[in-house]
Specification:
Blueprint lengths: L5 H17 L9 E5 L5 H8 L3 E6 L4 H5 L1 H4 L3 E3 L1 E2 L2 E2 L7 E7 L8 H11 E12 L20 H9 L12 H15 L5 H8 L5 E4 L1 H5 L6 H6 L6 H8 L1 E7 L1
Parallel strand pairs: 1-2, 1-6, 2-3, 6-7
Antiparallel strand pairs: 4-5, 7-9, 8-9
């Protein structure tokens, strides 16, 4: 699968900062930032280039990333798995961010507990991730694949020719098995109520902020304008496309 371009990461950074600004939490240059689930560190590099003390963590990195300066110098670090631990000290960060990460997290409660631990008192956190009720599961491209993950359902769509970008060239049964394994092992879509139950014990402020996020999202901006007339639009956006979650320690 091809990696996103630097422009995609630049747009992501702009959306994150603009959303936080709209929430009344503008991020000053020099703030300490953690990109939770940072991939290969591209977004971390952009934040550092702009004067932020940015770091990243993830469960694994490519060999190329591990040879790079960011990893060698401790800017990028592996999340410890046994026991699960974000590899930074208590009260380190002004801001913790993630983008398209929590749909892969198996234990939300532990992850959010660790995020809170590394945040400074009064620190904030912003997480954007696809909804449990998205019409199309965005990794496999399977309709309703966030909630219907049975082998028969996946085989039906594979037989209809739906393979997804990483399953092209596979037979229908091979694609279905691959999708089934991926969805069961590597995704975990929670409902809004389940997310709240995992988050509320750890933070003083818990708020879904799809309205503010939509205003700066290329796809959501046009819909956001409609919310002036139809105030339930952000709720529908959060239910059917992306969740945006704002937290304060």
């Amino acid at each position: 699968m091809s990696q996103p371009s630097l422009q995609v990461y630049a747009d992501c950074r702009t959306m994150q900062l603009a959303t936080l600004r709209n929430l009344g939490h503008a991020v000053p240059v020099g703030a300490t930032i953690l990109d939770f689930g940072c991939g290969q560190g591209d977004l971390v590099g952009l934040y550092r280039r702009d004067g932020f003390e940015a770091f990243g963590c993830d469960i694994a990195f490519s060999p190329e990333a591990e040879r790079g300066d960011l990893f060698v110098n401790g800017v990028l670090r592996k999340i410890e798995s046994n026991p699960y631990r974000v590899p930074f000290e208590n009260d380190t960060f002004d801001l913790v961010l993630s983008n398209g990460v929590f749909e892969h997290v198996q234990d939300y409660d532990t992850a959010f507990r660790e995020i809170r631990r590394v945040m400074k008192p009064g620190g904030v956190s912003l997480h954007v991730f696809p909804s449990r009720y998205s019409p199309i599961e965005r990794h496999t491209h399977i309709p309703l694949g966030t909630t219907i993950q049975s082998y028969g359902w996946l085989l039906f769509w594979a037989a209809m020719g739906l393979r997804g970008p990483t399953r092209k060239g596979l037979s229908a049964r091979q694609a279905a098995r691959s999708n089934h394994r991926f969805l069961k092992d590597s995704t975990h879509y929670l409902s809004r109520a389940e997310i709240l139950r995992s988050v509320r014990p750890h933070f003083s402020v818990v708020r879904f902020c799809e309205r503010e996020f939509m205003m700066h999202s290329p796809r959501g901006r046009q819909i956001a304008r409609m919310s002036r007339i139809l105030p339930f639009i952000p709720f529908l956006y959060g239910a059917a496309r992306n969740r945006a979650l704002f937290l304060v320690k």
